[in-house]
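Worked example 3 (structure in, sequence out).
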């Protein structure tokens, strides 16, 4: 599963970078080739062209421009800004976004699969404990996926050593399960911090280019500094957008981890109460 996920991530990343590079290198298409050719005879013959024709052509041209403007989609606009901001540098920000989303999606799927109905599981465990079938309760936990069942199963495995041994096993295994639940969050936090840093670096590079243009021209003209300032602003915007998106996913994941942690703690306390209520003491025997 992990290898498949990694392969899919590499394919998506490669396709995105290749497509971006292709769009960046393609020259702009000349949309006026078909309308630029004019019949010379029609130009020299005044009778062939009515006086109202220029006005009609002008109106048609305006309608064509408006239609082309309306056809610009959100994706095309983002792509244009991406290329204008310097696709070579903006690719690093895009990589942070793709990798961060990959980690976030993997964590969300894993945590969703780890969520179980703890009340139902505790009810079945209580039935086995009442029947003095500790082995059956342990097998039930082994057959149930998720960190909560894993911790409860480890505690039931130590019932023979008394409740103190059960609590120690629960605490030890609980720490391991919490580490597994928080796996990958450090990388997500790295991409959240790295994306705006890359954006600010683009800002600095763009401003340096703008000042270089001013120094070369010997005068401050908008046409000389507009390009560098535009690069600076676009890289900053894309870096901040990436950080905001990943921060939302990070908060959702941490909230899910906290919820699973609380349910796991409540389940372990309930299981110890079940053992006490059914006569299991610190010596590992029923009273």
């Amino acid at each position: 599963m992990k290898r498949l996920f990694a392969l899919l991530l590499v394919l998506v990343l490669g396709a995105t970078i290749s497509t971006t590079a292709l769009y960046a290198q393609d020259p702009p298409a000349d949309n006026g080739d078909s309308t630029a050719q004019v019949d010379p005879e029609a130009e020299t013959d005044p009778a062939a062209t009515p006086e109202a024709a220029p006005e009609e052509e002008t109106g048609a041209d305006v309608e064509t421009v408006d239609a082309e403007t309306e056809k610009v989609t959100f994706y095309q606009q983002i792509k244009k800004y991406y290329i204008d901001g310097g696709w070579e540098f903006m690719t690093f920000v895009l990589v942070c976004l793709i990798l961060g989303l990959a980690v976030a999606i993997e964590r969300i799927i894993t945590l969703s699969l780890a969520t179980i109905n703890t009340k139902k599981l505790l009810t079945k465990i209580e039935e086995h404990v009442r029947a003095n079938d500790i082995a059956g309760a342990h097998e039930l936990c082994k057959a149930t996926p998720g960190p909560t069942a894993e911790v409860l199963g480890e505690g039931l495995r130590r019932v023979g050593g008394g409740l103190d041994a059960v609590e120690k096993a629960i605490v030890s295994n609980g720490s391991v399960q919490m580490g597994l639940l928080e796996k990958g969050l450090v990388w997500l936090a790295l991409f959240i911090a790295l994306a705006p840093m890359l954006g600010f670096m683009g800002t600095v590079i763009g401003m340096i280019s703008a000042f270089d243009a001013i120094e070369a021209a010997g005068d401050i003209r908008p046409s000389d500094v507009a390009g560098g300032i535009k690069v600076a602003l676009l890289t900053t915007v894309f870096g901040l957008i990436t950080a905001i998106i990943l921060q939302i996913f990070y908060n959702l994941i941490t909230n899910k981890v906290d919820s699973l942690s609380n349910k796991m703690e409540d389940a372990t306390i309930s299981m110890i109460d079940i053992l006490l209520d059914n006569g299991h003491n610190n010596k590992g025997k029923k009273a």
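Notes: The radius of gyration is 33 Å. The mean pLDDT is 75.
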